[in-house]
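Subject: Interface between my chains keeps coming out wrong

I've been trying for a while to get a sensible model of this assembly. When I model each chain on its own everything looks fine, but I need the whole thing in one frame so I can look at the contacts. Pasting all components below, labels as-is. Any help appreciated, I'm running out of ideas.
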Amino acid sequence: MNEDTNVKLPFFGIPKILPYVKKYRKRIILMILMGITASLIDSLFPLFNRYAIDHYIGEQTLDTIGYFIVLYLGVLVFQVTINYISLYWAGMTEMNVDRDLRDASFNHLQTLSFAYFNQNNVGYIHARVMSDTGKIGELVAWRMMDIVWNGSYLLFVLINMLVINARLAVYILLLVPAASLLIIFFQRKLVSVNRKIREINSRITGNFNEGITGVRSIKTLVVENIIGSDFKKDTDEMKRTSVHAVRYSATFSAAVAMMGSVALALVLWKGGNLTKEGLMLIGTLSVFMSYAMNMMEPIQFIIETIAALIAIQVNIERFTRLMETESDVADSKEVIEKYGDTFEPKKENWEPLTGDVEFKDVSFMYPDGNEMVLEHFNLKVPAGTNVAIVGETGAGKSTLVNLVCRFFEPTEGQVLIDGRDARERSQLWLHSNIGYVLQTPHLFSGTVRDNLRYGKPDASDEEIMAALKLVSAESVLEKMDKGLDSEVGEGGDLLSTGEKQLLSFARAILADPRILVLDEATASIDTLTEKAIQDAIETVIKGRTSFVIAHRLSTIVDADVILVVQDGKIIERGRHRDLMRKKGYYYDLYTRQYEEMIVNQMTAA
Amino acid sequence: MTLMEKKKFDTKLSLLLYFTRGCKRWFALAVFFACAVSLLDLVNPKIVGFTVDTLISGKPAEISGLAAWFVEMAGGADTLSANLWMVALAVVCVALLSAVCRALFRIFNAIGAETLVKRMRDTLFDHIVRLPFAWHSVNHTGDIIQRCTSDVEQIKMFLSEQLTSLLRVFVLIALALTYMYGISPKMMAVSGGFIPVIIGYSFWFHKKIGSQFAIVDSEEGKLSSIAQENLTGVRVVRAFGREKYERERFEKQNKFYTNMWIRLMQLMSAFWSSGDLISYLQLLCILIYGSVLAVSGELSAGSFIEFVTYNAMLNWPVRMLGRVIANLSKAGISIERLRYIMNSEEEKDPANAKTPDFHQDITFDHITFSYTEEGKKILDDVSFTVKAGSTVGILGSTGSGKSTLMYLLDRLYPVEEGKGRILIGDTDIREISSDWLRKNIGIVLQEPYLFSRTLAENIAIASEDAGQDEIRRAADIAQLSEAIERFKEGYETSVGERGVTLSGGQKQRTAIAQMLIRKTPVMIFDDSLSAVDAETDAKIRAALKENTAEATVILIAHRITTLMHADQILVMDKGRITERGTHEELIAKGGTYAKIYELQMQQSDVGEEVKE
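Reply #2:
Try treating it as a single job with all components included. I did that and got this:
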């Protein structure tokens, strides 16, 4: 992706993040003041050397040494203290801003519609929450402090030099623009080389991924050498580019160091002459020398910070774009007033839900699509009806389900829940009454209990066990050593797919929803679990309005109505027997897709 | 091949030495120039001291050797004093030389480091793709990738940034202390006394910072996976209306994670500011003691300035020393993690591996197999023979062991001694070179993997010298060309992770083309027509028949029409062969096969039958 090249926002995009920083403005102002003070003291420290050289060594006396030590220690302690505080605060501010931004973006995501999730992949969204926010926090704290520290240090050094000896100071000042130009020149080059390095690096990681996930194919095709030599091409390029980059940056830092030495030489020459003529003391000469050598680093820092500011704009832009994305499925003001919002529901006003669903003259087009996938679609689903939706993978079977769940809203027409437009009640109200079992069952890391309670937070252990029993999932528990307290691992990784499925059925049953949405798995499961799941499905859909994206013979054959989807559109509807008799698309689909099921069911019998 | 000479690595050091083969000379050059830099860096303070004392203050010169020679060459101290620009020029020249050496140090160091990284990555990659398939099935992809990326990076950092700097720092410290000793042994003692203090404090902090960092890291992982789970499970979250719960969960972990970071920040701030404290205290001691010495006439102003400059130079390198020592353990852990991979054994062929002709009968002789030691038997005493040039069809439910049979034949998993044999003619496949075996057996997997390349490259991946015509022909037979032509870039369309996503059927047909172009004497279709419709299935089989007349074919399928023309059909259930024979024989027998056939042929009534 090349989007990180040219984003330009007014004032580097900083105004856009001010609202998130406001909270901390007092501390930030104090931080800046302390930073400036610290730089001032830093720039004054060489004056101690100067005094020691000119007074004690030059005049051969130790008369004021007691005061000297006390003053030095006093300044030092003060310096160290404010340094510690400003460093600590900068770190704290960075982390607090990071945290606020992460919370804000995460919470905002909870309210966005599925159009957003369909258009952006998980990795992309995840990076918005986890990494853009970090970059912005860094900007607020460290980048700002870098400018404060180095800018004020540079300023104070220049002032000190001008005060101490203006003529000599001017010589050195002449070097500043030269050094700046040099640094800017190299900086540019480095940015583009480094981008290339990152690109190759992610390619290499991708290669590793391919080498590992594709290992079965690599072995059966005996292409280890081919894949390996291609890999070496990438690592070769990486090596070349990296060395190339270092050549730049090495020349760069050598040049910067040279500039410092040139400044030193200048002071030695011009200042030496002044000292010889008695116009300047040796101590002053030494102060100038240390200033001259230490000036280059802050200049380099400031320029690097500016480069970083330019780079951070991309992160700010991505973050604000996320925050400015509005859900295209939003509850109206009146609805929120009565039913509450996503985070603060007003359950006292919620009506019970019976489960009648009706599509009334619904036309629908996906927000990122360019064609109506439903046109003037009408369907009445009385409470308790089982609807099976069948079609090939990728045919668009989830469209109806998305509409029932109000993950999307109809482009035209209405979806009625219990006779009223779904939009008249809050999303949370509807969702609290819908059970959802996914094709790839999704569990959250945590215990079995946490997961089962997901749809009913106050469920007792007895209720949980009863639900597990209903779907014959107790066997899953028996295998685990801590019963309901057993961890399921990240995304349920510690369980097999079949076990995850059984648990997600139990979870759905526990929530006791009036409407159930079920996306049946196509993945192969061993026959015993298969049987358990089939029974579980029958149990779960009994007595509820259900929409099943179906792959199982029994589910389909039993359904009250079958909707057949092809290329996103519903082309046939009716009961199994009628559709088979028609010998249309359903008939074809059926004969093709269910051969495996027949074999499985017959040999297992 | 370099990999063959490699054996087990008993220690971390032996692995490190193996990896650094070929880059040691670059590191040696880097260290050489680093030492030169240290040496040169010490020259300018000397010049400054001489200038201040002799040329400006007019004290008698206390120089000797090379320095005296230089002064002589320039026309003596008086000439120099009158022409200070010459001194300035000398400073610039020394600085230039030092800058060049510094740049060379970094460049050679980078070459060393990149050579090292390349060698590590290449070795790891080569090794990993040659590890047995069984190894891959028990090790997590994410974990291996992390070892190959961040652990490699960690080792590189350690060797190139820390270890070379370490050497440089030692040289610098030694030289600086020597010079400082030359100026004033007493002052040197004061300044040098701080060195162990600085190293000690830096080490102590880095240990603490390191362990706090590990905590932060793992908390970040937890936070990140909460976000990840929320995003991947967005449908579940919404459908159960648990947005509020999710918010609380995230905010709680977010807060905890942030607090861990703040604690880390506190440590780091304490580290930085106490570092300042110590070095300024050191400076104070030197200033005071220097003044005292100067007043008693033991030290000149020039020497004093010189000394302070040397002292300042030591400041950072010494602090860094503490860090390097603290990081030693991190690098050690990384090496250990790579050692695990490198010590896993690659697939091995027996000595004098055989390369028999594959136009022979294939015999499965009493095969019993399970994936784990006490796990359930996937295959239980399976025996059958595939006559050379014949076609065998295998029908069975999911999990009945059909695919496992094929994996065993291709030696993706080994058949244990005493649990049966697989023979090609009369050669046990354990005695056959695995490359030879796999080159002669083509398998189309049920879920084929496409590489991040173009379609043409994917088809021809295992037969590099195949021309455009052959690729097109293979695609034709696999009924893929039509689909390919619909892509804008045709055969040059990129697929895989970074390219177009193909449908399951298209992937399968690509894999079929991939196998056809190899013209292997044995061809296996592992349920690889499951995602194509019956019509295409028939077309592919017809085309295959014409083109693979001499090949031995094993067909695994659920669709009886796919299998029915096979010379022999096996029905498998729970790891056993329950029926075998030709289509006609099996129908006549009236067993499971016949029943399935009946069902599949009379689909219109299937629903009702299954329900009963």
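Reply #3:
Confirming on my end. Chain B has two domains: 12-342, 362-446+521-611.
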